[in-house]
Design goal:
InterPro entries (chains A, B): Creatin/AminoP/Spt16_N (IPR029149), Creatinase/aminopeptidase-like (IPR036005), Creatinase_N (IPR000587), Pept_M24 (IPR000994), Peptidase_M24B (IPR050659)
Number of strands of chain A: 19
Radius of gyration of chain A: 22 Å
Oligomer: homodimer
GO molecular function (chains A, B): proline dipeptidase activity
Strand content of chain A: 15-25%
Enzyme class (chains A, B): hydrolase
Organism (chains A, B): Sporotomaculum syntrophicum
Protein name (chains A, B): Xaa-Pro dipeptidase
CATH class of the largest domain in chain A: Alpha Beta
Strand order of the largest sheet of chain A: 4-3-2-1-5-6
Chain lengths: ~400, ~400
């Protein structure tokens, strides 16, 4: 078992504390699984209090024993109910709160009302942007894990090439991919932050199954029916059509995001040409992407290259197009930064994001997706694998 | 593709309208995927307005075309942004709201603030209990789907018996099960309503991997690490130990929940004896469970039988025990009713719930889970399959 080291947790907590102080927030109460894991090393059912100054306090309901085993934090106590949280904080010297930060981007309204009541007269404010800002910059420890993700992830594509066949359903291919990953330790779930946002372990669509879906992606897919209306369907994979596989393995909670195109046979010219434009986009973005450049500039460049091609109306979706072509990734699939229209955040070493220039046509979707690390010198590819169309 | 029929949607809407009127709520705005699917037949990104009186209005952002294809509702319009919702409602004759119901049990606080602002001076109240109450009683249409779930679900257990082997990792077995289901059309996701509640497609744990987890279940499991800390792990399946498989197939959005125990070889006496107590519990509950009996009585009876056995301290978890042994199921895994301590809701024909008496020991967990339909005459088993331990 890999446990997050104490030094790592200390650094993360210190970064959040600096932001809390700047905003005059007395402390943050962290509850959501991904954030809880990031700052405490455990997702055992807990409230993690991070004071603007002082040592964090992990208050655990279920299970205390595992939290103690998994978390390297110094102060871990058992707390049975919500009502005990305030007295527990007080008994550890934390009281007289004026402002407390919560994850109001994910905390359900009914729970918000309860916390507001419990901590009255303190003001409950949103700390989610601060938390997501800290999480945006990955540490060496996190990068080590992400590199480990790639060693497994890179084994998948040759496995697909060896096992994909004409007449196989998209669902059968999805099942094979998931089983390949699951046996190697994929948790079987992917965390996403956005409300109502649902992500399957993979996104496998072929040929004409590229209709847009309720999900904000360039490539939709029918899914198995109107109740789960995206991605792989019962459609059979045919010859001479693109099979888009968008996937990420997971190690220690962390994912990379990667897309490759497979084809049994030969692709029509508009698809191979559009694929080349996607390659051109990542190549040119790699030239531009240095620390200090605003994220929005990268999307702008992608958009310009797509607009100058014959496939402008197919970039990031068809008939509707997205206003972004990349997203931060790590413990969740929708982390900061957003590589999208008007996003001003300047690139900074340690940022990790997926870039996914894709072109969607009624007869298929093509494109490439890699996850990149921002370094002092520019982008480093974390999803290292052959970048061409994978012909079978 | 199966689309929810108009008559079905009409009935559901009418039921909610009756409850809205009773509570003096002018209408409900429904956004969350499971609820949206239930009342409109689509999960395309939408706001569904159900007035206390009159026809519902589905306001769709993404994608309009699929919503029109999938939903049998009469009034479907395109709406580009949140700001357009109120004017759109007004232009359809809905205005002067005093009280509006939202799904405040799942709606994130930040979104709640936005809606509150947009609909000022209307009061935003919680309609989630009303929605969940309507969804609690399944229609003939829904029961037809649930029976179809069982025809696939019942194929899984012989497949496991034929393929499980000593030395296979729990993850390998989980991968096999998921692939078996996925190819047949399982969406690859399970919807749960509770905040921070995460459910994998299956729960596969063997022998000693029964330590409690952050999840509210009788049987925990290590999972793949502290970031995803429940269920199947790299542990190898051994001889003479129980392998607990807790799973549900999904058809048209609906799941059943079912648990069976597998064993390669022979189980220790305390495990087979505890299994018999679990069987005794479902048999006795079946005698008691008639319309009108409060749900809590069923749990009370289960608890009494467990307490009278030598395994009282192992019922619904060890060392900590749960205060429920069953839960409603359908589009979500945690629907009403709750078969738990002090729950007063009387049984009613059309309720569907899983009953899962389980006993957890340091060397393994045993028990059984079936999903039952409440009829005028008592319980009907929806998860029809041999109820003994599956020896291999």
């Amino acid at each position: 078992m890999r446990y997050t080291p104490k030094s790592e947790l200390d650094q993360r907590v210190a970064k959040l504390q600096a932001l809390l102080k700047k905003q005059d927030i007395d402390g943050a109460l962290i509850i959501q699984n991904a954030d809880l894991f990031y700052f405490s090393g455990t997702i055992q059912q807990s409230h993690l209090f991070i004071p603007a100054e002082g040592k964090p306090l992990l208050m655990v309901k279920n299970t205390f024993e595992r939290a103690v085993e998994e978390s390297a934090l110094d102060n871990i106590v058992y707390v049975d109910s919500l009502r005990e949280i305030l007295p527990t904080l007080q008994s550890h010297g934390f009281s007289g709160f004026k402002t407390l930060g919560f994850e109001l981007d994910v905390l359900p309204a009914n729970l918000y009302f309860r916390y507001q009541e419990l901590f009255r007269p303190a003001k409950v404010v949103d700390a989610s942007e601060l938390i997501r800002t800290v999480r945006m910059i990955k540490s060496e420890y996190e990068l080590e894990i992400l590199r480990e993700v790639n060693t497994v992830q890179a084994q998948l594509f040759p496995y697909i090439s060896a096992n994909i066949s004409e007449g196989m359903s998209e669902l059968k291919l999805a099942a094979m991919i998931e089983a390949f990953y699951r046996e190697k330790g994929h948790p079987g779930l992917m965390r996403v932050r956005g409300f109502n946002t649902e992500l399957h372990q993979q996104h496998v669509v072929s040929g004409s199954n590229t209709i847009p879906s309720y999900f904000w992606g360039a490539v939709g897919g029918r899914g198995v029916g109107p109740a789960y209306a995206q991605g792989a369907s019962h459609k059979l994979i045919g010859r001479d059509e693109p099979v888009l596989v968008d996937i990420g393995f997971n190690v220690g909670g962390y994912s990379l995001d990667q897309t490759r195109i497979f084809c049994i046979g030969k692709l029509a010219d508009h698809l191979t040409q559009a694929y080349q434009v996607a390659i051109e986009i990542i190549e040119q973005i790699k030239q531009m992407a240095k620390p200090g450049v605003p994220c929005g500039k990268l999307h702008e460049l992608a958009r310009q290259i797509a607009d100058a091609s014959p496939f402008a109306n197919h970039f990031t979706g068809y008939p509707n197009q997205l206003t972004f072509c990349g997203h931060g990734i790590g413990l969740e699939q929708d982390e900061l930064p957003v590589i999208g229209y008007k996003f001003k955040t300047p690139l900074e070493p340690g940022m990790v994001f997926a870039l996914e220039p894709k072109f969607t046509f009624p007869d298929g979707a093509v494109g490439i997706e890699n996850t990149y690390l921002v370094t002092q010198d520019g982008l480093e590819t974390l999803t290292v694998f052959d970048e061409g169309i994978q012909y079978v």
